[in-house]
């Protein structure tokens, strides 16, 4: 199916909501299934195009019996509402950025703890699925949904509209950051951490309301931030997970033959298709940013050690916060770190 414009959003929502009056019965291969998918980023981006390719393949392999309409830019469900809307059936499938739900999915979000030797989406994807297979506690976080693909964003850096030569130059700067570990670490380094949506960064950076932001290279390109960015702090700080979930009643309404088609687009192999694409796009976007004259702040070893020390302190506090009488969060974090080391290039 083609991407659905906002002009018919209301009608689509009415259809979806009307279908949620009671439990859905499992259909047959003779039935038609018109599903909705929500993502908070624009549809006409590399990640949106990859999802569209996925949905086109599903439609083709079901002989047109499963159609999935893609709604980008949060036009169907906002980034903060998508989990609830998928749970309620107001949206069939949603792309979830766990940083928007800080503290609700901590075992999935463990890869967002800074300073773990992050290198790529592919590396982080393999880490996530290793943890998924090893720890039922992580799977339990998503037990109300059918999980399709799960992968992190590319390596996140801090970018500024000023020249930076050391970590000390970040002190006092207002820096936009996602919630969670990176916000804590940047705060400990002396930044004034600001929370805001990515599409608000450009306006605030251009007006000097903020002087920096934490983001991955594709986000820099998607939001045209290369036009006003002057420096990149050369520390691979973190990455954060994205997970694609389907309403369980919607999943159960599909006949086994069509569920099998979705299974082809589920799990680690399907997730790696997204990760490989995102890595390639991020590398290209970084080269384009550097071509604008944006400078790389190559920090001293002392600064790298300082960042790692602050990140390690946060990691200890993370493990303390999520350990219980029956769950050792420190051992879980160590398993995550071992997986990062295992898949390091």
From TrEMBL:
It comes from the Bacteria. InterPro entries: DctP_fam, TRAP_DctP_sf. Residues 1-21 form the signal peptide. Pfam families: DctP. GO terms for biological process: transmembrane transport. Keywords: Signal. NCBIfam families: TRAP_S1 (NF037995). This is TRAP-type mannitol/chloroaromatic compound transport system, periplasmic component. It comes from Flavonifractor plautii (Fusobacterium plautii).
